[in-house]
Amino acid sequence: MATTLHPVDRNYNFTLIKGLYLLPPQGEQLWSSGIRDGALVNGGLMDDNGNFMVLGSNSTLWESFKFPVDTILPTQILDKGMVVSAKQSETSFSIGRYILVFQCDGNLVSTTINLLSDHLNEPYYSTGTAAGVSSSPGVQFVFNESGYFLVSRENGEIYLLTQRITASAKDFYFRATIGFDGVFAHYLHPKSASNDSDAKWTSVWFVPDNIYSASLVSASSGVCGFSSICSLGGGGRPTFACPKGYTLINLNDEYSDCKPNSTLSCGDEPSGVPVEDLYDFEELINVDWPLADYALLEPFTENQCRNSCLHDCMCSVAIFRLGDKCWKKKLPLSNGRVDPGLLGSFVFINGILIAAICVGFYLINRKKLETLPSIEGVFETNLRCFTYKELVHATTSFLFGDPKPSWNQRAQIAFGIARGLQYLHEECSTQIIHCDIKPQNILLDEQNNARIADFGLAKLLLLNQSHTNTAIRGTKGYVAPEWFRNLPVTVKVDVYSFGLLFLEIICCRRNVDMDSSIKETTILTEWAYDCYCHGAFDKLVRNEADTMNNIGTV
Predict the structure, then answer these.
(1) Which of the four CATH numbers 2.90.10.30, 3.40.50.300, 3.40.605.10, 2.60.120.280 does domain 70-208 have?
(2) How many C-beta atoms surround the C-beta of residue 427 within 10 A?
(3) CB within 10 Å: which end of the chain, N or C, has fewer?
């Protein structure tokens, strides 16, 4: 079914038969208006207010105003239980985390929803129109034709959200939208606009005034993603940033979670190396993640707070505040925010105004020392600066040197590369052909998690493309046959290169070994094929005991 979770492209058509249907150019229907069987459909009508209706002989069988997505229009009414859902981002129409819902208790609230479930988090905006000791509950949320928002109560009273609208419905179009960032705003557009430069929707009212300070949730990330920092931008819109040392998990969604570029670990540090040489701090001012605490230490000095976090393998953040309090926090960090109000007071020292009451010490850099051969003229340092020889050593010895990685490590590396290619080929909004898959372009972290690197030769496909024509790209020995035949290339050229790399991972030897003493084994692909034909897989892995124990998976 086509929903905001599964948008469809522009080639699909709406058809009015025994209801409203969404049909692809070929194939079965993806969505229908759900009109009961046996109902007689006479036609469809779009009225002057923007409400599309499917009409029966003497009644309205279905209308779009009863099924809003992210926008409502003048004369539209939300009854109890009706929901307005934000889209995921500026360019993605998939359902987002923010909703506006008129609850069954008569209260209109804005809140976040934990996607793939129906769990609603604590609201960050509320009209407060539920039943009270001296008030009647709301029964409808109304966007009237004059552009006012109001909640009508059970006893006939009106609760007005917008106090004054200066623009006239005679001269302006109105709409209200809950944005992908969670702000519910009232927009107007001049009816007299004559060209594109004049055609602008202007926000004249929005709630809440400060979304991230109004939102504090216990079972989700908050307004922005986990381990991120929210601040207030123009028009009440939250702006988002990952702390230094963190990157977005989803590069296409600026409000997604942040992940650390390095990994904290307990008991995995090299012996004899001071912890100060492994980790460092990034200092932030007036930043907090209020619900990520796991320890409060007091009375503590600033240095004690810093050192306590530094020597605690669970500590990702330490907040020092109020002169003697130290809050230690661990991942994932939620409800991140910049808040100048955290300072509380100022300290005067030698006539200089110093704001040092709220300082967040942010643990961001895992500077684990790696054992590389010493090279004359290279200073011993923890800065990430490498010579060319060091890079050659680091990117080749893991596979072709001694000791060889275990079979489980090899399988993990191969699966990691395959998952990376699947992401590039099938999950990116813009399909990517890497064009140069080889061992030197695979990076490993301390846990042998594979990362595909060096996109200098990569080719991006357009949305309507499945193949492309281009000059030969890649490295000798890993180039697919299509390149030499002047044929259109697809993502399959990466699959071919991965197949060669996969053989190298299994055998822990290079694709071409000119130093081999046995002529038949010089070209790995030819030798592997001979072994396959003769059922001699043990020769490929040189009778390694660890690998022979897993010969079934080989």
Answers:
(1) 2.90.10.30
(2) 9
(3) N
* Segments of the chain assigned to CATH 3.50.4: 275-366
- From 257, 312, 436, 494, active-site residue: 436
CA distances from 533 to 22, 105, 272, 416, 528 (A): 52, 72, 52, 29, 9
Q: Which of 19-33, 70-84, 215-229, 355-369 has the lowest mean pLDDT?
A: 355-369
pTM over 0.70: no
Rounded Cα distance between 155 and 136, Å, is: 6
Express each pLDDT in 7-44 by its tens digit.
566 666 667 666 777 777 666 666 777 777 667 888 88
Contact call for residues 362 and 339 (beta carbons, < 8 A): no
Q: With a cut of 50, say whether residue 2 has pLDDT above it.
A: no
229 by Cβ neighbours in 10 Å (0-12 / 13-18 / 19+) ranks as buried
Give pairs for 452-459: CB < 8 Å, separation 24+: 452/417, 452/420, 452/421, 452/424, 458/432, 458/433, 458/434, 459/432, 459/433, 459/435, 459/489
Question: Which class is domain 388-548?
Answer: mainly alpha
Q: Which CATH number fits domain 275-366: 3.50.4, 1.10.3470, 3.40.50, 2.60.40?
A: 3.50.4
Q: What is the mean pLDDT of residues 333-352?
A: 51
Is 196 annotated as catalytic?
Answer: no
Under 8 Å CB-to-CB from 266, ≥6 apart: which residues? 313, 314
State the burial class of residue 186 (Cβ atoms within 10 Å of its Cβ: 0-12, 13-18, 19+). buried
Q: Give dist(CA 407, CA 546) in Å, integer.
A: 6
> In the chain, which residues fall in CATH 1.10.510.10?
388-548
CA angle 210, 216, 222 (to 5 degrees): 85
> Do the beta carbons of residue 85 and residue 178 sit within 8 Å?
yes
pLDDT in tens, 420-462: 999 898 888 788 899 999 988 888 877 778 888 888 888 888 7
